[in-house]
Amino acid sequence: MVQAWTRLSAVPCAKMISQLLDIVHPAARILVDIARSQDAEVGDGTSSVVVLAGEILKEIKEHVEQGVSSQIIIKGLRKACTAAVNKIKEIAVSTNEANRRDTLGKLAATAMTSKLIKRNTAFFTKSKSTRLRDGACMIPS
Predict the structure, then answer these.
(1) Residue 18 is part of which domain span?
(2) Fewer CB under 10 Å: which end of the chain, C or N?
(3) Is residue 8 within a helix (H) or strand (E), and if so which, with residue range?
(4) How many domains does one find in the chain?
(5) Residues 50, 30: contact at Cβ < 8 Å?
(6) CA–CA separation, 80 vs 33, rounded Å?
(7) 3 assigned to some structural domain
(8) What are all long-range contacts of 81-84, with beta carbons under 8 Å and residues at least 24 apart?
(9) b or e along 2-25 (b: 16 or more beta carbons within 10 Å of the residue's beta carbon)?
C-alpha cells in the first residue's frame, strides 16, 4: 500500500480507508475489490469481509510458500465454503408468523449496532422491523 501522508484522516470503515489509499499489492487490491463489492451489493459489512478475507489469505499463505498447487488450495477453499454454508443452514433459526416480527426486530437492531444511529436503535428498529415484516410477509417460506 502506498499513501502520500500529507494529512491525518480518521475513517470509520474499510470502504473509506480503501478510497484514501493507492493500493499496489495484488492481495491488498483483492481485499479492496471485495470491500467495494460488499458495499455495492449490501451497503454494509465492508470491514467484516476484509477481515475475513485477510484471515483466509493468512491461512493459505503457508501453503503457497510450500509450493502447494493453486488448484489444491482452491479445492480446499471450496470444501471449506461448502462446510460453512452447511453449518449456517444447520444453525439457522426458522420463524413463523407468531414470532416473525420479534425476530425481524432483533435482526434490525443487530444490524444497526455498528452504525452511528446505535443510540436510537429502538426508534429505528420499530420502524424498520415494521417495514421488514410487511416485506417478509410477501416472501414465500
Answers:
(1) 14-66
(2) C
(3) none
(4) 2
(5) no
(6) 22
(7) no
(8) none
(9) eeeeeeeeeeebbbebbeeeebee
Q: What is the pLDDT of residues 84-128, one digit of tens each?
A: 999 999 998 777 777 787 887 777 777 766 655 656 666 665 654
In the structure grid, which three cell numbers stand for residue 16, read together? 473509506
How is residue 26 written as a grid cell?
495484488
Report DSSP state, residue 140.
Answer: -
User: Quick check: 125 and 109 in contact, CB under 8 A?
Assistant: yes
CB 105 within 8 A of CB 123: no
Sole residue written with cell 446505535: 118
Residues 6+ apart with CB under 8 A from 132: 104, 107, 108
Phi and psi angles of residue 34, each rounded to the nearest 5 degrees, phi first = -65, -45
Whether the CA torsion 33, 47, 123, 102 is positive or negative: it is positive
Is residue 57 within 8 A of residue 27, CB to CB? The reply is: yes
Which grid cell is 65? Answer: 510458500
